[in-house]
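So, is this right?
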Amino acid sequence: MRISVSADSDEGVTRQLVAELSRRGHEVIPHGVLAAEETADWAFCTEAAARDVAEGRADQAVVCCWTGTGASIAANKVPGVRAALCTDAYTASGARRWNDANVLALSLRLTSTATLGEILDAWFDTGASQDHTDQQNIRHLGRLDEA
C-alpha cells in the first residue's frame, strides 16, 4: 500500500513511523520534514499528503504535528479526505470502521513508540463497516465535500 506521510518536525515518533510503515511493507511517500525540498510547515505538508490520497497517488496518509490537531484540521479541508486524530488503538479502529477514515492524524508529542504500533495495528487491521447506516453516513460526508 502507498502511504503518504507528513510531519512538521523531526521529533517524537516521526522516524519510527516511517520505519514501521516500511517494515510492514508499505511504500512511504514523504512530505514536510521528511522531504528536503518541501516546507515543513504543518498546514502545507499536511495538505500535500492529503492531496496524495484525494488525487489517488496514495492509498492512505498519516499526518503528524506536535498535537495532531492542526494536521487533522488541514487534512480535512481537502475534499475526499476523512482524517481522524487518534491517540489510541480503539479510536483508530473506530475511525476506520465507522468513518472509513483514509488519513490518520497523530500527535508527535503524545504518541509513544508502543502506542504507535498499537494504533497502526488497529488502523490497518480494520476495514470500513458494511452496515447500511454506516455506509449512508460516509456517502453523506462525500456530499458535504461537494457543497
